[in-house]
Predict the 3D structure of the following.
Amino acid sequence: MIRALVFDVGETLIDETRIWSRWADRLGVSRFTMLGVLGGMAALDLPHAHAFQVVRPGLDLAAEIDAWRREDPDGLRENFDADDLYPDVRPGLAALREAGYRVVIAGNQPPQAYDALTAMDLPADSVHTSAGWGVSKPDQAFFAKVAAVVGRDPAEILYVGDRLDNDVLPARAAGMRTALLRRGPWGHLHAERPDAALADLVVNRITDLPQALATDLL
């Protein structure tokens, strides 16, 4: 029986459209090009960071981020804020907590993402990032951390994310139940793959989860 739900961040809670659009402006390519290349990375099973090398070969990403920070210290740059939340996040998380589930946020995110997420005052019991833990998905050590902070047997945890490779498959290997969220480039493409059948649920919105759990679709 599911007792807790753990949520990925990027393209699960956070709409990354504005982030990638700012990157396009920064690198001098059209937003259509940047987003299209990013979709290509999803289709080709390449890391999203490779998109930078496609549009700007030889780019030193760390140096570019540092330069951007110096030039625009008060801007969002490569970061996010509450305006980037998908509209179903607050009501969906709130409904799950009201139904008695423990709600945890844990995803692959840089150090500054923790403060950004906690500042949103989301209806969640705790927030965790890969940077804070020193381990990233799909490493099984990440999912061991998830189980530890939730305080439940892995079989009682539903991990929710938009990717098969980083979310569904490694969480399943850790003994957790899984939900694939069909949104964002990876979510839409991965939902069409045969391995999507390995997810316990495939949903379009976080607000679909309370009903799915209430009707015992797992």
